[in-house]
Amino acid sequence: MSQPQPTVYIVDDDASFLAATSRLLVASGFRAMTFESASELIAHCTANVPGCIVADLQMPGLNGLELQSALALTRNPLPILFLTGNGDIASSVRAMRGGAEDFLEKRAPKDALLDAVQRALARDARERAERERTQALKARFEKLSVREKEVLAHVLQAQLNKQIAGDLAINERTVKLHRTSIMAKLGVRSVMALTLLAQEAGMTPAEPTFPKGQ
Question: Is 191 strand, coil or helix?
Answer without folding.
Answer: helix
